[in-house]
Write a structure and sequence with these properties.
The structure is a homodimer of 231-residue chains. Chain A has three domains: 70 residues, Arc Repressor Mutant, subunit A (Orthogonal Bundle), CATH 1.10.10; 103 residues, 3-Layer(aba) Sandwich (Rossmann fold); 29 residues, no CATH class. The first copy, chain A, is 36% helix and 18% strand. In chain A, helix 5 links the parallel strand 3 and strand 4. Chains A and B meet through helix 1, helix 5, strand 9, helix 7 and strand 10 of A and helix 1, helix 2, helix 5, strand 9 and helix 7 of B. Chain A binds a DNA duplex (22 and 22 nucleotides) through helix 1 and helix 3.
Chain lengths: 231, 231
DNA sequence: GGATGTGAAGTAGTTCACAGCC
DNA sequence: GGCTGTGAACTACTTCACATCC
């Protein structure tokens, strides 16, 4: 009985952030016809040490082969399992400007179980358009049931949109707007901020320190949660 | 001798990632006419503890007032100083599709010292268009001198573009393409992956743990900044 | 031989608790 | 009273080093 959906031992936050990176590397490897990969190779491409890779993967169970590394197929499968990629969930996107369109049409955003459920905007010239196979609805319409809401509006609209998403029982929000939003307890908000990446890069350039080696890959997840509304 | 551009004591990686968040909070506060803010308030909005905020800010020098918190103006100024926002640097963007346009037109990307130097694409119907005040050039043209190169192409083009950027003496790359690229030693690649945020969010939803936890979360109020860093 | 997996050691980051100052 | 700034304690993560297995 191979892995009966074990209540996986809790993975550390840094590990969780690295697993998708390993997975992409494994997939690229597989694409080029390679059948096996070792921790040294993964580490080089991901910009971490081989030991870190081995510890991360050991947390998913022992599926490597001593002397021969990891089977690329098993590797991707185990990571998918750990991250819950077998489960499907619905995503609504609010704000269908350049960014919203880029996300919806990207081959890299709505993957691994994510399903696009509906699109919303408040611009009459955008409402009714077909984008990514969905008709853009009015923001004033009832929000479709979903697991995750993505905010791609200007900062000024972000709080209102967050309120609507929460009102529609959506408790996980990915916010691309440069605006801190307040939500009730029990709702998670992850912020994605393009400029922060640039700022971190510049800090290191200015100070000479930090990730400047070859093939450095930096992935930043800044999760913030749970402020009480009012008071 | 008030801070004569000190060779600032090295800040920790998590701290560096949090500073831009604090800065945005401070700016929002200032926008709403508030003059002071305390570590408790910053922490709530950023999703970290007040102690963490104080320790982060103490690393920039002691500019808080006991009993009264931080002056919002001084706060933003000190963070800007620490992150090198007074210095200007040039950015080239390659791949002017939806994402490239979204970034270039965003009020949140090219800020804090970043200056748009040039845009490139290889699609004849895009070359020559004006985007964000710049004419899109052919990818085969010589790359303009710059500090940072941003890759917004499909995965298949990413490695070629990275090679061109490196050839143009650009040693800092922000890669939005879902593709690991290899570069010579001395070049930093930061990898931004939208889907990773979604995957992390889903991991926590599936496992009940973490920044979403069913009810336990208030006690954590926790955020996480994860960096994969290389040698 | 060669690479995994893991105790043990080391390092980095966070939180506690409180002295110090407004 | 309130809130900052910081040594001390604690926790989490990474790295070392090597036994283990193919």
């Amino acid at each position: 009985m191979a892995t009966p959906r074990l209540r996986s031992k809790k993975l550390s936050e840094p590990t969780i952030a690295r697993l998708p990176v390993y997975q992409r590397i494994a997939e690229g490897w597989s694409h080029r016809g390679q059948k096996r990969i070792d921790s040294q190779q993964i580490g080089e491409m991901a910009g971490v040490t081989a030991t870190t890779v081995r510890r991360d993967l050991a947390g998913l169970g022992s599926f490597g082969t001593r002397g021969a590394g990891y089977d690329v197929g098993v590797l991707t499968e185990r990571i998918a399992e750990a991250l819950g990629h077998d489960r499907h969930y619905d995503v609504v996107v609010v704000g269908i400007g350049n960014l919203g369109r880029a996300l919806v049409n990207s081959s890299n955003f709505l993957i691994r179980g994510a399903r696009l459920a509906a699109l919303y905007d408040n611009d009459p010239s955008v409402i009714g358009q077909m984008v990514g196979g969905h008709e853009v609805r009015a923001l004033s319409d009832p929000i479709s049931p979903a697991t995750v809401g993505v905010i791609c509006t200007p900062a000024s609209a972000a709080q209102d949109v967050a309120d609507r998403l929460v009102g529609a029982e959506i408790h996980a929000i990915l916010n691309f707007a440069p605006q801190v939003v307040t939500v009730p307890l029990g709702t998670a908000v992850h912020y994605v901020d393009f400029s922060i990446e640039l700022q971190i890069l510049m800090y290191h350039l200015n100070n000479g320190t930090g990730p400047l080696g070859g093939g450095v890959l930096h992935s930043l997840g800044l999760a913030s949660a749970n402020a009480l509304r009012g008071s």
